[in-house]
Amino acid sequence: MAIKIVIFDLGNVIFKFDLLKFVKAYVKKIPNHKITDFNNLIPSYSDVSHVYEKGNISSFEFYDTVARKTKYVGTYNEFAVQWNNIFEPMPEMIELIAALSQNYRLAVLSNTNELHFDYLKERYPEVFALFNRLFLSYKMHSRKPEDEIFLKAIQCCNVLPSEIFYVDDLEDNVTVARNNGINSHLFTNSTVLIKELKDKKMLMQQY
């Protein structure tokens, strides 16, 4: 069945991100810190971040929770700058997405949060102008690899799962997408993705 919509993850597919950059800036506001690794920032970081990514706490509540647990003395605005200053666009992917936008509807499906997404959309409006739909975990109150977020995206796109081509860099997300009938590509680099798109005749050979 012909592909009607192409859906992309954000992190490490369209924008590279480096959480260590956040940690290095963040710990400067922690007196006598001994933190060198993001996973050691707070023992329950993943739990707190997942709740935030599902939109179940506000950005300030996320900041306040992390700050209290780590004895961070920076302000909310300082935290927001550090939290957001981790992204770098992937030009080869943005160029590919622009090419695909000529023939396909495009969407984003991302585990993200309010601070990150507002920052990216404000800084890179030309990138988000390429997309017809945005499926964001913090607005959908569900996150990958939960089935729910994929099923909601399929319903909103008003197409069959087999009419979607999905690109994500995490194997668990790709597996769940495939289990729900979506054509899915495990992203490693743009060269491999371009080859698959050409093989599927979704992209001209001369691209």
Q: What topology emerges from the helices and strands here?
A:
Blueprint (H helix, E strand, L loop, with lengths): L4 E4 L6 E3 L1 H8 L18 H9 L5 H12 L5 H9 L2 E3 L1 H10 L4 E6 L3 H10 L1 H4 L4 E4 H4 L6 H11 L6 E5 L2 H9 L3 E4 L3 H10 L8
Parallel strand pairs: 1-4, 1-6, 4-5, 6-7
Antiparallel strand pairs: 2-3
Describe the structure.
With 207 residues, this protein is α/β, with parallel strands linked by helices. 46% of the residues lie in helices and 14% in strands. The strands form two sheets. The protein has a five-stranded parallel sheet. Helix 1 (19-26) runs antiparallel to helix 4 and helix 2 (45-53) runs antiparallel to helix 3 (59-70). The mean pLDDT is 94.
Query: Which descriptor suits the 3D outline?
Result: elongated
The largest sheet has its strands arranged as 5-4-1-6-7
Instruction: Report, as a whole number of angstroms, the end-to-end distance.
Output: 23 Å
Percentage of β-strand residues:
5-15%
- Average pLDDT confidence is 94
Low-confidence stretches: none
What is Rg? 18 Å
Q: Tally of extended strands?
A: 7
Order of helices and strands: EEHHHHEHEHHEHHEHEH
* Global structural class: alpha/beta
Largest sheet: 5 strands, parallel
Q: How much helix, percentage-wise, in residues?
A: 40-55%
